[in-house]
Design a protein that fits this description.
The complex is a heterodimer. By secondary structure, chain A is of the alpha/beta class. Chain A has three helices and six strands; from the N terminus they run βββαβαβαβ. In chain A, strand 2 (14-18) and strand 3 form a beta hairpin. The longest helix of chain A is centred in the middle third of the chain and has 22 residues, at 68-89. Chain B is globular and about 45 Å long.
């Protein structure tokens, strides 16, 4: 399988998925008006990966902002990861949030309550 | 046309309006508004927590206006596609005001959704958000009814809304979101 790399923009995050290394990164802002089109390539790649998983799959979600249009798509990504985990892909999700961003921490906890994969909440210290 | 722009300016100044817009909403406009607000809050040295809250709520409120245009019936007069929004700031709170035309049939549904959200306590609102997030229903743009729940959750306030009946087919829907500092 080929790597999937999508460069970030002011409204969409950087996505890096390396099936060979079993690594996925979603980083930046996810606030497009229409998020379904944006997340489709990732959802498709994860679908393909489900049939050919690595022993461990490490996922880092480092979002600064995301809108509710993205939130259902992110849930779709997590549901694919749940399937990957069931297929023996050893998934861990690292949910990063800035230290005083309670809303982002809470958003991670919402997903954690729905998705049956180990979540790790990772606090990012503020730069300034 | 008889408009005194100075009076209008003073009125906005008294009401602590930072930014206002009336017209058609495009994706590019939203990008610019968000950039402007982000740099304004940066200059005001707002705490990170407030900056993020205001930005997030602004994204939802403005994208609601943007998506709202898809839902306008074909019979809607041209002018009904324009919207108004204003962003204000006092020492206690940020305020986001939005206004748009809505077909009366849709207004009834929206009102009942907003009333339901307002009837919920914070913990119930959190549960409701997760329920709607996980119910598998998605509009063709994503969302699927989460926007207003998210605004209520993040602002921590009841939604302050109003529907003014314009004629047999349309009402004007206004929303005032208050984000305490």
């Amino acid at each position: 399988m080929e790597n999937l790399v999508i460069e970030g923009s002011p409204k969409t995050p950087t996505i890096k998925f390396s099936p060979e290394e079993g690594k996925l990164l979603i980083q930046g802002r996810s606030i497009p008006e229409n998020s379904i089109d944006f997340y489709k390539p990732l959802v498709d790649s994860l679908e393909e990966y489900t049939g050919n998983v690595k022993d461990t799959t490490s996922v880092d979600i480092v979002l600064e902002y995301f809108n509710t249009s993205s939130s259902k798509c992110i849930l779709d990504v997590f549901k694919k990861l749940e399937k990957i985990n069931e297929a023996g892909g050893g998934v861990t999700i690292n949910w990063h949030y800035e230290e005083d961003d309670e809303d982002m921490l809470e958003a991670g906890e919402d997903y954690q309550a729905i998705i049956n994969i180990p979540f790790k909440m990772v606090e990012i210290e503020e730069e300034d | 046309m008889d408009i005194n722009i100075y009076d209008l300016y003073n009125k906005m100044e008294q009401d602590s309006i930072m930014l206002s817009f009336k017209g058609n909403v495009t994706s590019e406009l939203l990008t610019s508004i968000l950039q402007i607000m982000e740099s304004k809050m940066e200059k005001l040295n707002e705490p990170n927590r407030i900056k993020k809250k205001v930005y997030n709520i602004l994204v939802e409120a403005l994208q609601n206006l943007y998506h709202h245009l898809d839902k306008q019936p074909d019979s809607a007069p041209q002018g009904h596609n324009t919207v108004i929004f204003m962003i204000g700031k006092t020492s206690e709170a940020y305020s986001i005001f939005t206004g748009n035309y809505i077909a009366n049939v849709n207004a009834v549904k929206l009102r009942s959704r907003l009333e339901k959200i307002n009837s919920l306590e914070p913990e119930e609102l959190k549960a409701y958000y997760k329920e709607v997030l996980n119910n598998g229903m998605m509009s063709d743009k994503g969302g699927g009814g989460l926007g207003m729940i998210d605004i209520a959750r993040k602002s921590g306030q009841r939604l302050d809304f109003d529907f003014q009946k314009v004629d047999e087919e349309f009402s004007f829907y206004s929303l005032n979101i208050n984000i305490p500092q």
